[in-house]
Design a protein that fits this description.
It contains 54 helices and 60 strands. The strands form 15 sheets. Strands 38, 39, 42, 43, 44, 45, 46, 47, 48, 49, 50 and 51 form a twelve-stranded mixed β-sheet that branches. A seven-stranded mixed β-sheet has the order 53-59-60-58-57-55-56. Helix content is about 25%, strand content about 15%. Helix 10 runs parallel beside helix 13, helix 21 packs across helix 43 and helix 22 crosses helix 43. It is of the alpha/beta class and about 1950 residues long.
Length: about 1950
């Protein structure tokens, strides 16, 4: 009951619904296909925008009433109904229930209503109260979904007035709430609206309940809630206490929808991936996983609910499917605002959204309002920190008074506003129906977030945005997920209801949340305005009542308006970090500089001097200096040998200079770059024409760092690339190399201008513009916000993005960077297809590139901090951090960078003093600093050559770096350590300055003779013991040497948290280590041998036991087990600074014995995070003692018991149970050891936490930070990044979710309705820092240059002519060497040379003539059997300007020739049939011509029907310089790409007719590649035929055409013999043509000289066509080119012999001589012999030759002989090509003729055994030439009457071959020849019948004996018409 209309189609509106359905389907970009009938079946077809919905709101009720009445009238008549009388004594008032409780919405909208789980509040309409809604609670299962379907039949409801529950019938319920109906009660008719809470918490009318699809209008909120759980906070256990069960307040439904949706929302989503959510093996398909990361709410059904299945109605709430934890979401416009907000850690499952539309609160909190709040005086002095006030919701009051002591930030307000505004992706679907997260919930979530932050953590806006996103998403998308499930969910979730927080409950809930955090978060509730709360907060601060409080949340909430809020950061550490993070890098520098210049830091210095009880450090230093001046540090220098000299002093053998070599990785990347360049060139856009470039030039742009500049010059010099590219000559100077590297400084523009001029002047040179370290300076040149900045700012934009670079067709720009994120925004210039990412070394556990070194980058450093790894390479220094924090509280006005720098300098100074013997100074440094200093000072003493370690001390602020340098320099000098190690100030703007002593050392080590040499790069400092103070705000690509051991980053600006900044600082430590694990070095417990990824421990930590002051707790078992943090000073020396850390440090624990320390170790570790400081002040061994220990350790079993030994000695020895693992060399070079292990990195605690904390997918937190300063997030509605993302997916993520700020150079690269914002010739190479990108791009230049040269070169056959020795030796020459043309009469006297000289026929049978019968027995000796089948010889030749080209050639000149003619549409051509009859085939032949429009002038068409009549032919007498008379035919197969059909350059632009002869099945592909060429398409019967068929048809067609032309032109008065009779038949591999020029100007007539030069084909053809009496020659050809041609071969300029490859054929003279259409091989030899025997002249021009290109595909290679039975490729030997007739032999799928020819070539000796190597007695071959193999000679005779044959009178033949002999062969003809006894006969016929007839007709049985078993056939099936043979013996 109650559901009677649910399944009826409203026929009255059928047409309208159908129309809308079709239109919606066409426009839809849905995720899921939409079945038509479910659209027509009571479904909502129109989505109204929020504007339309708003305009209709007033009329909605009346329209729906009318529609409902219409519906009921059209469906069924009204049912008369008599209500049951109400029980006595109950209330019957309209609007009240029978218990007398008010149900009207207006009355109870503000009251708290208890709603059970699974129930919704709905409004019922009473006919007696048209203006009121009655509030009811109804089980949502009995309400419809968004489509008006899936409501369970029946009813279940409660009365909200009296609380009565369990109404099971709507009739009963309608009686209880006094509806007083006159018709039958139906829930569809009377339950009209959902009820929702608005922003003020009042219950209001929500969207219409969608009972019928046609009634759906613009609803304001959705229809159901999802199940929910308590808040699960990241890293916390959830919320204690319960929340109210009221619905969430809905946002104002009339809020504007925001900006319009643009196409950009769906730009980066693959359309195919968006349509389904297929599950593969229980996981999502790879495409879906990409979609999960990329999904941008882009495609949501515009008609709702099309995804539900048609089964019985189900319970409406569904959660995730068990298989797919984050399946692709379909976004509905009716998202649920009533669902609760949850935070849940499910990284990577968020769906992405594009830009948010900033729809914020009506009044901007940026404007102060209400009474002002006075900031108290002396606030900073009292609080020791400036409080940071983050504006939140609502109005913010004015501040007055001491406002310099507070910082006000709009950051949180912006975050709230962004999270409340809906993304564009939602707006296109009517965003007003989706409710954003409420202000109350935002604030409550913020409180939860602050509560779970640790005392040393700082809040991050990114974290909050993700929390809001997750909460909002969990609230609104749960029900949508049900539509994604392909199968019903196996375990439906139990619904549990948590509904909205009201403003009244907010302070209480916030207080409840804050109650558990030990007062770190304090809540202040105020009644009227924020002003009173702020005043109270200031009062509490002044009174010191907020000492333990880090965050104060002030809430002003009342029922009648929106909440006001702000959050004040009062924690000293947090306030300092946040306030400093608001400074821009330049402001940061200014602030520090100001504090240094004004002397504010002096207070810090004077404070330090009070710490030391022995007096000021400077006094101690002076005292030490005075005392030790005579015997300076003898203990330190005692063992130190001098540097290497020539007298045999000990030399360090383990030091070796690395040779520059290309690693497999770099080669792979270079090849990837090359393939991208090729794909740009191959694309149809014509953006890069590689074929037009002859050479490469380049310019490398680097940041203005002198070291980086010199480093790039160094790489360039040693790569040899300039010589390889031919840019420079042998004697390269540094000045010449500098031309190719541009430092982006003030002088860059001049050099760049030269580069641009070169590119314009050399259009045939490809210029590669390499922008190295490309993330540096992305400032827009247009941006004038910083006019005061130096000239170099915005230089990259001015130079690389200038119009000349963008438009130059010969400039390719390559950006190279380790941090590409800022170049991957929505406005980037670089196409995602033009990105090249450094490949990963492992794929599915397989090592892809066998490198002998392993790269250690960020991920490996992070991995080393995890449990189970031997040594954490990333560490922080807790005692240093504690001292900094304490000093920060004492000196609140000093910038923390200043404090940190001064503390660290103090630590280094004290450590140096401690190592030099002032042991009391150990207490004034930290263990970490002492370890660094000790290893640095001792390192050079362990190496005979004095090699040492490098320590990088990173101080970004240049003034502070200068202070540090001065101070450390001074301390080193006082301690007399000047010769022990160097201190270098690394300033980006200047070079390296080091002392003379160290320069000399470096020169000796590196074997440098140059007197003036100075190191110019950090790489050249390898082995130098030094502290490198690395300054500059950002590293600019400087590489560090392998001797780097410690990277001290404790001073990096940790408040500036962007991904690029953090990663590039850590990139300094990126390192290559040897990947071989040395067994003696491996610490067994620490490294699992089975894991190749894990590095061996840092090279023998026993050295650290002995020499590093036992400071490393890296080796302790406890250390390895602990994974929460790596505070390497947790059980360590704490400086005496602890004594003034009274606010944070508990009392110190002093340990006086090793045992106690060791035993307490684990306990102490657990206290680390609570700030426990333990002091071990007396356990550091003096240096000498350590050395003795080191030399005395004999085995791993040594127990270290000295009282001065390490507290960790026991764990050290226990971790090396094997004897081998502790082998020590007493003088092992520290630098060598350092190069075998990655450096140790020290970080600020804040940065360490961010780097090492990971999200649920394992992604480091740093990766999800804002990628760069000059970009911003496109929306808060973005998904989490995932660890599983590849580089490509990360790129797509940033391209979708980041936009450049106005200061970014890409800001103006907008997509203004165009798709061409990507620059076509711009590439991006990204790879980890220090991995070898420079080597990769230099290698790329090398292989690109080689490829360009290769594009201009071809491999041509270079073979000597064969059978030269068989030639007739004659002194008679018929022509003079200089003759240009043959003389006809003289030529007729020349004998025909039967011998084949073409080297491609080296394995063909020799053709005998009478003249050659003598001395040819040695032929077998001269031909080595093994040479026969080897590869043919080729030579690489540079293409000349007259070459023929394949399809890959593009140049301006031949665009029109190739069909890029603007006058003709591409591919515009017509198909014409052309038929002629041929008697020999016994049928009419029909050929097809494909004629492009541009070539129609070569043909004659009939006028009325445009039928093809003939091909125009010129006259013999025509003469024209620009015209080739002979049509050229090129038969081709399988070479549509590689055939050389572009004859434009070969013909030197002359007009010519060129026809490609193709097989029918290849027609389409040839037409595609050569749209402007005429095609002659062979009939389909020739699809499997050989080249003989093509030649046969070309010749027959040409003769037929000649007849037609003679007839046509005869009517014009032209004689038939005047029509030009020649055609050219050319191979498709003829590439160039040469002419020999003979100079006969010598004294004697016989003297001549000759030169060969490349000429155009036009010149050769015109020369031949101009031959006197040319029409008397039947065939004209030329030599094949060979580099070994000698004078004798060209002394006779013309030969009468065989011609091949490129011939001119006289079709008139050869009318009666045919090509054999069945032939596959040697058909040209066969034809030549027929022509000669017919008495026709064959002339070869010896002064012309043709070069043939080696083409590896197509041609004869197209024919594969395979079995007809099995598809599996089985190699079949030629012996199997024939079989006995009727045998069970496997039939082969190949033409019979091909099988015959191949069999005879390899196995003819089976038929002609006497003929083998018997050249005096050849096989007689009648009317044909078949190749019987190189060891059998044949003698050709023609049976035609009057034919020219050799005299056979003296010849005896060893065999007879009769092949398909015709009627001219008669018995009498054969009886003229003599045969040896036992000679063999082979007769070949088409069938067995004709075989027998031939034997009878030729009377063969008279002289030959036959046996039945001597009959054979080719191994074809019957339907393939095999050939049959019969063999016999001569009697």
């Amino acid at each position: 009951m109650g559901n009677s209309y649910a399944g009826q189609l409203k026929t009255t509106r059928f047409e309208e619904v159908l129309h809308n359905s079709i239109e919606a389907s066409l426009r839809s970009n849905n995720l899921v296909p939409r079945p038509i009938f479910s659209q027509l079946y009571l479904e909502a077809e129109q989505q109204l925008s929020s504007l339309e919905a708003g305009s209709r709101a007033d009329n909605e009720e009346e329209e729906e009433e009318e529609e409902e009445e219409e519906g009921s009238e059209s469906s069924s008549p009204p049912v008369p109904y008599q209500m049951k009388p109400p029980p006595e004594g109950c209330c019957t008032t309209d609007g009240f229930c029978q218990a007398g409780k008010d149900l009207r919405l207006v009355s109870i909208s503000n009251e708290h209503i208890e709603v059970p789980s699974g129930f919704l509040l709905v409004g019922a309409k009473s006919p007696n109260l048209p203006d009121h809604l009655l509030v009811c609670a109804v089980d949502k299962r009995f309400l419809p979904d968004d489509n008006g379907r899936n409501a369970l039949l029946g009813f279940s409801g409660n009365c909200v007035g009296c609380g009565k529950k369990g109404f099971c019938y709507f009739t009963e319920f309608s009686n209880h709430i006094n509806l007083k109906l006159t018709t039958q009660p139906k829930k569809q008719k009377h339950l009209k609206y959902y009820l929702v809470r608005n922003a003020q918490g009042a219950l209001t009318k929500g969207s219409v309940i969608c009972w019928k699809g046609a009634e759906f209008r613009g609803r304001q909120s959705s229809t159901s809630t999802c199940s929910s759980t308590l808040f699960q906070l990241p890293e916390s256990s959830g919320l204690s206490g319960s929340t109210s069960s009221e619905p969430l307040p809905a946002a104002n439904p009339s809020a504007p929808a925001g900006t319009q949706q643009t196409a950009a929302a769906i730009d980066h989503i693959p359309s195919t991936a968006a349509f389904s959510s297929t599950v593969y093996n229980g996981k999502e398909s790879p495409k879906q996983q990409l979609m999960k990361n990329n999904l941008s709410a882009l495609t949501r059904p515009s008609v709702l609910g099309t995804l539900t299945n048609s089964g019985p109605p189900k319970k409406r709430h569904k959660g995730w499917s068990p298989e797919s934890p984050s399946s692709t979401e379909t976004w509905n416009s009716q998202l649920n605002p009533q669902a609760p907000n949850r935070i849940k850690n499910d990284g990577g499952s968020l769906s992405s959204l594009p830009h948010s539309a900033l729809v914020g609160p009506a009044s901007s909190p940026a404007v102060g309002s209400g009474e002002p709040v006075s900031v108290p005086d002396n606030l900073l002095k009292i609080c020791k920190a400036k409080p940071v006030i983050f504006k939140g919701h609502g109005n913010f009051p004015y501040l007055c008074g001491n406002i310099n002591d507070v910082i006000v930030s709009p950051l949180l307000y912006t975050c709230y506003r962004n999270s409340q505004s809906l993304s564009r992706a939602y707006e296109q679907y009517g965003a007003s129906t989706i409710q954003p997260i409420s202000e109350e919930m935002q604030l409550l979530l913020t409180v939860y977030y602050l509560v779970q932050l640790a005392a040393d953590q700082v809040p991050l806006i990114e974290d909050l945005e993700q929390i809001f996103m997750r909460s909002w998403r969990e609230s609104h998308l749960s029900e949508i997920r049900q539509y994604q499930q392909a199968v019903p969910q196996a375990f439906p979730q139990v619904p549990s209801q948590i509904t909205a927080v009201t403003s009244a409950q907010l302070p209480w809930l916030a207080g409840l949340a804050a109650s558990s955090c030990n007062d770190s978060v304090h809540i202040i509730e105020c009644s009227y305005s924020l002003a009173e709360g702020l005043s109270e907060m200031f009062k509490l601060l002044i009174e010191g009542k907020l000492i333990k409080t880090n965050y104060v949340v002030i809430i002003c909430a009342s029922r009648n308006r929106t909440i006001d809020s702000c959050i004040v950061i009062t924690g000293k550490y947090q306030a300092r970090v946040l306030s400093e993070s608001m400074l821009s890098p330049s402001d940061y520098q200014k602030e520090v500089n100001y504090q240094l210049v004004t002397g504010k830091v002096e207070t810090l210095g004077s404070f330090f001097s009070t710490l030391c009880p022995e007096g000021d450090i400077d006094l101690l230093l002076e005292k030490f200096y005075q005392e030790n001046q005579g015997h300076i540090s003898s203990s330190l220098l005692a063992n130190k040998p001098t540097a290497v000299n020539g007298t045999g002093t000990a030399v360090c053998t383990s030091y070796e200079v690395e040779r520059h070599q290309i690693r497999p990785f770099q080669l792979a990347v270079a090849q990837k770059l090359l393939s991208h360049i090729c794909s740009i060139a191959d694309s149809s856009t014509q953006n890069l024409d590689l074929g037009s470039f002859e050479k490469i030039d380049f310019l490398i742009c680097v940041p203005p760092s002198e070291v980086t500049y010199q480093q790039t010059l160094f790489h360039l010099w040693h790569s040899g690339i300039l010589l390889e590219l031919g840019l420079e000559k042998e004697h390269l100077t540094k000045q010449r190399v500098e031309q190719y590297v541009l430092k982006l400084d003030a002088e860059a523009q001049i050099k760049f201008k030269v580069f641009l001029q070169n590119s314009m002047q050399n259009p045939h040179t490809l210029f590669v513009l390499i922008h190295d370290h490309a993330h540096w300076d992305l400032m827009s040149a247009m941006h004038s916000l910083y006019p005061q900045t130096e000239l170099s700012t915005g230089l990259v934009d001015r130079l690389l993005n200038c119009r000349e670079v963008k438009e130059a067709p010969n400039i390719v720009t390559l950006h190279v960077t380790s941090f590409p994120y800022a170049l991957q925004t929505q406005h980037t210039h670089i196409s995602p297809y033009n990105e090249i990412h450094w490949p990963s070394s492992y794929s599915n556990g397989v090592d892809l590139y066998h490198e002998n070194k392993k790269y250690f980058g960020l991920s490996e450093f992070i991995e080393s901090t995890l449990s189970g790894h031997s040594i954490p390479l990333l560490r922080y220094d807790s005692s240093f951090e504690a001292m900094v924090m304490a000093l920060g509280k004492r000196f609140p006005r000093l910038h923390s960078a200043v404090i940190r720098t001064f503390v660290l300098i103090q630590h280094y100074s004290a450590a140096m003093m401690a190592v030099c013997g002032l042991s009391q100074m150990k207490n004034y440094t930290s263990v970490e600093t002492l370890e660094i200093t000790q290893n640095l000072i001792n390192s050079s003493r362990q190496c005979p050559s004095g090699h040492g370690l490098m320590v990088v001390l990173r101080i970004p602020c240049t003034p502070l770096a200068a202070v540090a340098y001065e101070r450390l320099h001074n301390v080193r000098e006082r301690l007399a350590l000047e010769d022990n190690f160097e201190i270098i100030l690394g300033n980006p703007n200047s070079g390296i300055t080091i002392g003379k002593h160290f320069v000399e050392q470096l020169k000796v080590w590196q074997k440098i003779e140059d007197v003036d040499w100075r190191p110019q790069t950090y790489l050249e400092l390898e082995g130098l013991p030094c502290i490198l103070i690395f300054s500059g705000m950002d590293p600019q690509g400087e590489s560090l040497p392998r001797s780097l051991r410690y990277c001290d980053l404790r001073l990096i600006n940790s408040s500036s948290l962007v991904r690029t900044t953090l990663e590039q600082e850590l990139g300094l430590a990126a390192y290559f280590v040897s990947s071989e694990i040395h067994t003696e070095k491996a610490v067994v417990n620490d490294v699992l041998e089975s894991d190749p990824e894990k590095l061996s421990s840092t090279d023998n930590e026993d050295e650290e036991i002995a020499t590093e002051g036992s400071t490393s707790e890296k080796r302790s078992p406890m250390k390895r087990e602990r994974s929460c943090s790596h505070d390497s000073a947790s059980s360590s020396l704490s400086s005496k600074a602890s004594t003034f850390c009274t606010e944070s440090s508990p009392p110190q624990v002093l340990s006086n014995s090793t045992e106690e320390t060791t035993n307490n170790y684990e306990r102490q570790k657990q206290k680390v995070d609570k700030g426990a400081q333990t002091t071990i002040s007396k356990h550091l061994p003096p240096v000498t003692e350590q050395l003795d220990m080191k030399q005395n350790i004999k085995s791993a079993q040594v127990s270290i018991t000295s009282s001065s030994s390490s507290p960790f000695s026991s764990s050290s020895s226990s971790s090396a149970p094997t004897h081998n693992s502790f082998i020590l060399q007493t003088s092992q070079c520290s630098m060598t050891k350092a190069s075998k292990q990655p450096p140790i990195v020290f970080l600020p605690k804040l940065v360490y936490d961010i780097i090492t904390s990971t999200d649920s997918s394992g992604l480091p937190k740093s990766s999800s930070l804002l990628p760069y300063h000059s970009v911003m997030w496109a929306s808060s509605f973005r998904p989490l990044m995932s660890k599983m993302m590849t580089c490509t997916e990360q790129s797509l993520y940033y391209r979708q979710w980041t936009v450049p700020k106005p200061i970014h150079m890409d800001y103006n690269n907008r997509n203004e309705g165009r798709m061409d914002t990507f620059h076509p010739r711009r590439l991006l190479l990204s790879g980890p820092p220090q991995i070898g990108k420079t080597g990769a791009y230099l290698q790329f230049l090398s292989i690109l240059s080689r490829m360009l040269i290769r594009l201009t070169e071809v491999d041509v056959y270079d073979e000597e002519e064969i059978n030269i020795n068989i030639k007739e030796e004659s002194d008679q020459y018929y022509h003079q060497p200089g003759d240009m043309w043959p003389d006809l009469e003289t030529f007729k006297k020349m004998p025909f040379d039967y011998t084949i000289h073409d080297p491609k026929y080296e394995d063909a049978s020799l053709i005998c003539s009478k003249l050659q019968t003598i001395n040819n027995e040695d032929r077998s000796m001269s031909r080595r059997q093994e040479d026969m089948y080897t590869c043919r010889q080729t030579t690489r030749m540079r293409l000349s300007k007259y070459a023929a080209y394949n399809t890959y050639h593009h140049c301006e000149q031949c665009h029109q020739y190739m069909g890029f003619n603007p006058r003709y549409q591409l591919y515009e051509s017509t198909l014409h049939a052309f038929a002629f009859s041929y008697s020999m085939l016994g049928e009419e032949i029909q050929l097809h011509f494909i004629i492009p429009k541009s070539k129609e002038h070569h043909f004659v068409f009939s006028q009325p029907g445009r039928q093809l009549e003939s091909m125009r032919l010129p006259l013999v007498t025509d003469k024209s310089e620009d015209y080739i008379k002979s049509p050229t035919f090129t038969p081709t197969t399988g070479r549509h790409e590689h055939g050389l059909f572009n004859l434009y350059h070969a013909m030197d632009g002359a007009s010519h007719l060129h026809v490609l002869v193709v097989k029918e099945y290849e027609m389409a592909i040839y037409k595609k590649y050569w749209p402007n060429h005429i095609m002659l398409v062979l009939p389909s019967i020739f699809n499997s035929a050989g080249v003989g068929a093509a030649h046969f048809l070309i010749k027959e067609l040409s003769y037929h055409n000649l007849e037609l032309e003679r007839n046509r032109q005869e009517e014009l008065g032209i004689k038939p013999q005047d029509i030009w009779p020649f055609i050219v038949i050319s191979d498709d591999s003829c590439v160039m043509w040469n002419a020999v020029e003979v100079d006969c100007s010598g004294d004697r007539k016989s003297d001549y000289t000759w030169t060969e030069r490349n000429v155009s084909l036009k010149q050769i053809l015109q020369h031949i066509e101009a031959t006197p009496n040319v029409t008397h020659y039947a065939l004209i050809g030329m030599r094949k080119w060979s580099s070994k041609t000698n004078s004798a071969e060209i002394k006779e300029p013309f030969s009468c012999c065989h011609v091949h490859d490129f011939i001119m054929l006289n079709v008139d003279l050869t009318q009666n001589v045919q090509y054999n259409q069945n032939r596959f091989t040697c058909d040209d030899v066969d034809f030549n012999l027929r022509v000669h025997s017919a008495g026709l002249l064959i002339c070869r021009f010896n002064h012309f030759n043709v070069m043939k290109k080696q083409i590896a595909v197509g041609g004869q290679r197209s024919f594969h002989i395979k079995s007809k039975v099995s598809d599996t490729p089985v190699s079949i030997s030629p012996a199997q090509y024939i079989c006995a007739p009727d045998s069970k032999h496997t039939f082969l799928a190949a033409p019979a003729q091909l099988l015959l020819e191949k069999y005879l070539q390899y196995h003819s000796h089976r038929f002609f055994p006497l003929s083998l190597k018997n050249y005096s007695h050849p096989v007689l071959s009648v009317d044909c030439y078949l190749n019987l193999g190189p060891q059998i000679a044949v003698c050709y005779v023609s049976s035609r009457p009057h034919s020219l044959n050799i005299s056979s009178s003296g010849l005896t033949f060893s065999g007879l071959l009769l092949y398909l002999c015709d009627s001219f062969v008669v018995a009498s003809f054969l009886k003229k020849f003599h045969f040896l006894k036992g000679a063999t006969l082979c007769v070949i016929c088409q069938d067995r019948n004709s075989l027998r007839q031939t034997v009878v007709r030729l009377e063969l049985e008279d002289e030959w004996q036959f046996r039945l078993r001597d009959e054979f056939q080719t191994a074809n099936a019957k339907e393939d018409r095999p050939l049959f043979f019969l063999t016999g013996r001569h009697i």
